[in-house]
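Late entry, written up from scratch paper. The run itself happened at the end of the previous shift, but nothing got recorded in the book at the time, so transcribing now.
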Amino acid sequence: GRMKRARRAAPGPLPLLGLLLLGALPGLWTVLLRREAATRREPDPEPRPPPGRWGWGSSPAARGEPGGGGQKTFRALLAVPAADQEERDDEGRFAAAGLPPPAAAAAVSPVERGIFWSRELEALVPPGFAAEEAAAWLSAARAARVASLERGGCGRSSNRLARLSDGSRACVRYGINPEQIQGEALSYHLAGVLGMQERLPPMALALVEARGRQWEPVREELRGSHWAEGAVVSLTRWVDNLTAVVAPAPWGAEAGAGRRLQPLSAGELGGLPPSQLVELVQWSDLILFDYLTANFDRLVSNLFSLQWDPRVMRRATSNLLRAPDGGLVFMDNEAGLVHGYRLLAMWDPYNEPLLRSVCVFREGTARRVAELHRRRSAAAELHRRYRAREPLWARLGFLSERQAELLQARVDFVHRHIAQCRAQ
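Output as recorded:
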């Protein structure tokens, strides 16, 4: 399942707080307005469905609407945790990681060697989709039959929510064109190369064959779906009880202010509650990942919408959801690597400043980027992993030579940026 641009109003002006700081984008609005007509057709031509998917409850509280208490608001996220429940949650996460309680951990710097999140802080990040768990689900999903197909809950009208014979559910995505399914699959496996695949729901490719064993129980439903025989679709594990995510400050309050801001120091980060720091660790990976894949259909699309919606950064971030344990889920990456690479001139004026706004990284992520840079092996590593883990990879093919060069160039750009952060 996935959420496509669910919008939720957050409270008014927010305190300037956070690590990921957005550089100003002067002079870009006029140029982009001239391209607006073409651009607005690119992401998804269909209107966004309302909430009520991904296991969201139907009450305002469950959906994070005003008056509900089910989802933390942006202001609540930024507040020092005073409520007993939040303190207990933080203490529980520290205890599970074998660390001292927050009061004792407050004296520990969240940053090591100037640019890396501390090991103590990384230990608090929710585990996401563990590799063993993901492998087990993928194996079961590939072997299972599709017991039923339902409309709604998985984005555009051509997609379906599948109930599998093993009892699990999956979103079946049928792309507007094959490059969207290819982008989804390649982005998933690039996340594996980068060591952040646990943030993406498990995803496998499937071949639509009305007379095949996998689809036999839903042959009649397939006739009404208008899916082409032999098309490749993606199966993504359905996840319950996900809620919307608002971008951390300063984007919500400062993204349209036209000012270039400098990153906060490690000392200032030390005053933030553990729950916020844990989220910032995940955001640093997300922004780096979206730059490498040139994914414009998440935070970048929100930034673009500032032209006509000055409050958009205070609303939910597209294709990003939060699990009940606080872990971020990087949803719906079909714009990455293929579709996004065709539109670099349009979207890099947003993706590059976002990357430059991050100067603290997970050490493991930085190490993998450095290795891909040193070996010049980004496309080769992705190709190797894709072929080994996706039986249907050849049906969609791999990156073109030009796209492979672009991926390596973006890895090199990220490596240089990390080196600049270290030098500063």
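The longest strand covers residues 316-322.
(Scratch paper discarded after transcription.)
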